[in-house]
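thought: fold this chain, then report.
action: predict
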Amino acid sequence: MAGEILFLAHRTPFPPDRGDKIRSHNVLKALAALAPVHVGCLGETDADMAEEKALAALAASYCMPRRTKPLPLAGIEALATGAAISISAFENKALYRWVRDTLTNRPIAAIYIFSGQMGQYVPHDWSGRLVVDFVDVDSAKFEAYAAKSGLPMRWVHAREGRLLRHYEAQLAARADCSLLVSDEEAALMRARCPGVPNIGALRNGIDCALYDPAKVRPHRDLANAAGPHFVFSGQMDYAPNIDAVERFTRRIMPAILTLHPAAQFHIVGRVPTPAVRKLASEQGVTVWGEVPDVRPFLAAASMVVAPLTIARGVQNKVLEAMAMAKTVLASPEALTGIDGEDGEHFLRCDSDAEFVAQACALADDRFRAEKVGKAARQLVLDRMSWPAMMAPLADIVGLTPGPERTARRNAA
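observation:
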């Protein structure tokens, strides 16, 4: 099939500095190797808007309005219209107009939606190929939030989960192909959309050249201080990450400190909430907030921890740590979609007590910690590079690259 691609994402794919943007960035690069790609996305921060030149260099054309609608306003609009808040929050009239004009004026053969919220921009009369990359089953995430929340947020999250579940089923039924980030997420979506075909997985990869321990100097403050050092990285205004660091600080670190009084827990990531910043008052805990580069912290870590209780899809934080040859102590939820063996490539911890036991055992056995870390890096080198993960995209969108794009891709 000849033609061009319309790529719609809820956030700009630049810079690739958080989980969803890392995935969208690599998907966009892979699509651009197949055909001209027209990109519609929403910018949120000054850093996003500063990446306009990078987006322009990759896209055949683009539209990147700034998302300025406050969440409370999105909530009011959603209540008034009966829509999910997640849909209202990413509604933008300028982007609607640009999509309509692009479909009218360009030979678009396929639309690739990144994140279900962007399905609202696909015209009802669109008859070309439609690929929806849901990434995660968002409705299930809000259902999990509801189960953990008190009123009134329990009602808000339950409503969001209920409305998104209906929306996801409708969008999946329209799509020629629906993608999730792991086989487990794909199975969950199939169970929630009975009778809907073509639901599968397109897994995340990792840039092993960027996350190479041989090229990164450990952070000086950690390297020069007694340990062991446990590191958690992630967007720190994201509820599952907040829950994870509160869990490690309050339920796991105290027991570790009884055996290793010099142990340190480092929380690394942008936009820490007041609740996260408050954790710095606890013994052995440092909240770093946004840092220029997370890799020096990973390089200096004795272990990387991922004690998530709510997690959807593949955790980039786990892949990054594994690529950096670090032993990862992770909950079962944080290991979804990662092909590896417990005890060989990572250590699965099913409870707080297991986190404590494994953390203390490896703090006393550096040889084993290094062995697991080296095996982890080899695993991602062998099986989880971004080119390997993105190889199915040509068949998924129904396009094959012409000679010029093939040569450009091979030279890259």
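thought: worth noting. Residues 404-412 have pLDDT under 50 and may be disordered.
final: tokens above.
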